[in-house]
Amino acid sequence: MWQSGAMDSAHVDSDLVNILFTEEQIQAKLQEMAHTIAADYEGKDLLMVGVLRGAVMVMADLARSLPCHLEMDWMAVSSYGSGTKSSGVVRILKDLDTDISGRHVLIVDEIIDTGLTLSWLVNNLSSRKPASVEIATLLRKPEALAMPIEPKYVGWDIPNEFVVGYGLDFKERYRNLRDIGTLAPHVYS
Ligand code: PRP
User: Fold this and answer.
1) Residue 54 Cα, ligand 1 centroid: separation in angstroms?
2) Residue-wise pLDDT tens digits, 16-30
3) 105 CA to centre of ligand 1 in angstroms
4) Ligand 1: which residues within 6 Å by Cβ?
5) 15 is a domain residue
6) Is position 84 within any domain?
7) Cys staple from 130: which of 49, 100, 101, 106, with CB 3.0 to 4.6 Å?
8) What is the pLDDT of residues 98-146, one digit of tens each?
9) What is the domain count for the chain?
10) Which domain holds residue 69?
11) What span, in angstroms and rounded, lies between the C-alpha atoms of 51 and 53?
C-alpha cells in the first residue's frame, strides 16, 4: 500500500535484515569526506565523475557538502546484470561529455564490490591524460575485492553482504531508500 513521506527503512522493513547506516550517519560521513576533499583539492579545479546510476545520491550530497567550485560529469558503465553476480564484463554505456586532459578527476561511486568497475574506469580515464584520477566511494567490501584498487576516500568498509538503499539497487528497486540496509535473502533467493 502507498504510504506518504519519503522511503525510509520502516517502509521496507521485512525486506531488510538490518539497517547498516541511517540517513543521518550517511550525511555525517559525506560531510567528513567533503572536508578532506576540500582540503586536498584546494586551488585545483575539481571534476567529479559520477558512475551512473548508483552514484547519483552520493554525488548529489557530496557535491553539496563541498564549499568550493566543482564540475560534474557522468559515465554509465555496465558491470552487473539484473541480479547480484558480477558478469566480469565492463562496457561504456554513456561516456563523459568533458575532455579530461589536464583535469583533476575524482570518480564518485557508492560501492566498490569486486573492484572490477572502478579499476577498469581508472585505467580508462588515466589514458585520457588527466592531471590526476582519484576515487571517492561511500562503501567498500574488502572481502569481495578481486582487483587491486586504492580509493583515496572511503566512507565505510562493510561485510560481503547484499546491501541496498541510497542508490544501491536490487533489480532497480530500493535506490530511493534513504538508509542503507542488508537485503533479506528471501527477497533475492
Ligand atoms: C555498482 C556500483 C559500482 C559497481 C561496483 O554499479 O555502482 O559501480 O557496481 O561493483 P564492482 O566493484 O564489483 O565492479 P552497477 O553495475 O550495479 O550499476 P548501477 O550503478 O546502475 O546500480
Assistant:
1) 7
2) 999 999 999 999 999
3) 19
4) 51-55, 79-80, 86, 109-117, 169
5) no
6) no
7) 100
8) 999 999 999 999 999 999 999 999 999 999 999 999 999 999 999 999 9
9) 1
10) 22-78+90-159
11) 6
